[in-house]
Amino acid sequence: MVASRRGSGSIVLPSGQTMAFHTRTHQEEDLPHATKKTMADHLRKYESLFTLTPQRMRMIVEAFKDTLELGLQKPKQIVPMIPTFVFGYPTAKEQGDFLALDLGGTNLRVCLVTLQGDGKFEMTQSKYRLTEEQKQDEGQKLFDFCAECLKTFIDTNYIDENGQTTLKEGEMLPLGFTFSYPCTQNRIDHGELIRWTKGFGAKNTEGRDVGEMFRKSLEKYNVPVVMTALINDTTGTLIASHYVNPRTKIAVIFGTGCNAAYMENVRDIEKIKDLGIDDKAQMAINCEWGAFDSFEHEHLPRTKYDATVDEQSNKPGEQAFEKLISGRYLGEILRLVICELIDEGVLFLGQNTYKLETPYCFETAFLSLMESDPTDELLMIIGIFTHFFAVETTLAERQFFRALATLIGRRAARLSACGIAAIVSRMNYLDEGCLVGADGSLYNKYPGFADRVHEGLVDIFGDKGRNIITHHAEDGSGVGSAVIAAMTKIRRDAGLYPNV
Ligand code: BGC
């Protein structure tokens, strides 16, 4: 990596935009700027607000463990600990062609996955970007869009050289539907949406069976598909990562949203005792831990910026843990701190700052870029502030912004470590150690995020924390979804728990 870079150039941002940067050799002297000392004083204040001590982390882990236990005992808890009816890990011998549909926070993806056994697979996929309008429109329309995309995908992928369909008369293709929002399940192909998260607000969907809504759309568009399983992305990630690496025991997503799944002993899931499932069986649990500490706000160290993010969101009070961690919110937290300093007359005096005043204009990707700026003068940060927000910065201010990004990014990673630690202690994985399959833009693209999670685990558990290792997971929503569809087919064919 270049230690220092001067001159001009351009970089391509995650959003696809190109940003030019150039080195300036003189600071703009005609604008009033905060002094280095003022910025250092402010930084100290934010350091104490955003820093999590090991002791505080251990307290959070304890509260987290109690919450997980409660969710397993009783239905309708804040952290719902959803039984997924995915029984145990895959054998890695699962084989066959499966379709997977993935309705994520940003895109809709259709995949054709060929499971080859031995933990191997091949995949073809198409992606469709979701518009903001679709996210807020009628829910049924969203599922209609899913069905239409699926149909187009099948029409283009299931044809021979002569353009004729390769599907047999009446053939129905098995599909795993990854729907990454909290749904209560009483069967694997059913799911009642508890609430939308990640800024979605499609109407007439909360409280309804999204499996049923999707099936209605499939019928409407005559799509030759049978939905075998409705899956959360975390459950898919757990199964996909275990399929290729059996030491994986926990899966986490750090993306637009934040959540985890793990394999629980059925005998310890009190709330499904009456289903008559063998006590020795295991079942994947979709924790929906993003909801930890929602409404009550008793355990998490929320700052006033977090409270503002929450109040101004479309779901105040909800997803309290997620709002401190996930990619959807980190940029906004930093923006609110900057806006406060503008209001106090510390930053950008005499400059027009209106561009910074739009909520969510400061992308979390900017935090990643600021933290990874390799130049002495922090040229990347100059570029971000001039190009996107039309404001001039001094080196002291840029160093402050970078340090602030580090504080917010590190807090997110350390809180994530608390969640992982709660599952590790619950399942006694510490001594033998385990792998944690992790996915999502924050985990994959934020520099140092994984290292900070690992540091957090050592702060919580001491040296033994090193036994818990996160790694980039296999594609849960594609491969995982296909493996689960395969596992479900095998289970159903064997007549095991046919009602669920
Ligand atoms: C959703 C979860 C999902 C997570 C990651 C959260 O907002 O509630 O179901 O697993 O985002 O995508």
From TrEMBL:
Domain spans labelled Hexokinase N-terminal: 43-243
Reaction equation(s) it catalyzes: a D-hexose + ATP = a D-hexose 6-phosphate + ADP + H(+); D-fructose + ATP = D-fructose 6-phosphate + ADP + H(+)
Signal sequence, renumbered to the chain: none
Pathway assignment: Carbohydrate degradation; glycolysis; D-glyceraldehyde 3-phosphate and glycerone phosphate from D-glucose: step 1/4; Carbohydrate metabolism; hexose metabolism
Gene Ontology MF terms: ATP binding; D-glucose binding; fructokinase activity; glucokinase activity; mannokinase activity
Class in the EC hierarchy, top level: transferase
Enzyme Commission number(s) from the entry: 2.7.1.-
Pfam families for this protein: Hexokinase_1 (PF00349), Hexokinase_2 (PF03727)
SUPFAM superfamilies: Actin-like ATPase domain
An annotated GO BP: glycolytic process
Keywords noted in UniProt: ATP-binding, Glycolysis, Kinase, Nucleotide-binding, Transferase
Hexokinase C-terminal domain sequence ranges: 249-487
Superkingdom of source: Eukaryota
InterPro entries given in the database record: ATPase_NBD, Hexokinase, Hexokinase_BS, Hexokinase_C, Hexokinase_N
GO cellular component terms attached to this protein's record: cytosol; mitochondrion
Family membership noted in the UniProt record: Belongs to the hexokinase family.
The protein's name: Phosphotransferase
